[in-house]
Amino acid sequence: MIPGYDAYFSFTRSKQGYSGVVTYVKHPLVPLAAEEGITGILHRTPDDDSSPSPPAPGLIGHYPPLPAAEAQTLDSEGRCVILDFGLFVLFNIYFPHSSGPDREVFKTQFNQTIARRVEVLLDAGREVVVAADVNVTHREIDHCDPKQSCKDWGLKEFGEHPARRWLEGFLAPNGRMVDLGKGVGGG
User: Fold this and answer.
1) What is the rounded CA–CA span in Å between residue 50 and residue 46?
2) Is 92 annotated as a binding residue?
3) What are its cofactors (predicted)?
């Protein structure tokens, strides 16, 4: 804890010390709502686990529900804290890395869930800020050896990687989110 700040944590439930995020908010600012995870499953009561119901009232936005087992898996690694400050909703996210086929499936599901969650908030007229380690080498200029990466993944083009395609669709001009770091490091 840091004096003068409130801390909003999410930590892994599957591999101790593996991943997690924290958002520090300086006093006297207080979020209207805080939520751990991307799916709402961490805010359900144990008897809610069998049905894909929306999160409890009072949490941040409503969004398409996921089956409990899928939601539990996506939120088990402590990768997201969402804070509603009224003027905007802040997502603090540590996206999963694509280290192989199994993790690629997890990353794809995680990315799609984030995109759905953000879209619902934007459609409701909310301002959304995503502060994240996206764990994607977005453009060739960002990668130390883009040709080798293509070979490693069996790709003809660098942008064919599923996570890169997702990011292209999430960010403007193809998506609704603006990359504030664009131009910094080629981003």
Assistant:
1) 9
2) no
3) Mg(2+); Mn(2+)
Return the structure tokens found at 183.
Answer: 């131009």
pLDDT, tens digit, for every residue of 153-179?
888 998 888 899 999 999 999 999 999
Does residue 49 register a pLDDT over 70? Answer: no
63 catalytically annotated = no
pTM of the predicted model as reported, rounded to 2 decimal places: 0.85
Q: Which domains, ranges and CATH numbers included, belong to the chain?
A: 5-44+57-135 (3.60.10.10)
Cβ atoms of 9 and 81 within 8 Å: the answer is: yes
Question: Distance (Å, rounded) from C-alpha 21 to C-alpha 37?
Answer: 10
Q: Is 133 annotated as a binding residue?
A: yes
pLDDT at 93: 97
Q: Which of 5, 24, 123, 133 is catalytic?
A: 133
DSSP string, 97-154: P--SHHHHHHHHHHHHHHHHHHHHHHHTT--EEEEEE-----SGGGSS-HHHHHHHHT
Mean pLDDT of 134-160: 88
Q: Which residue has the tokens 């130390």?
A: 144
94: annotated active-site residue = yes
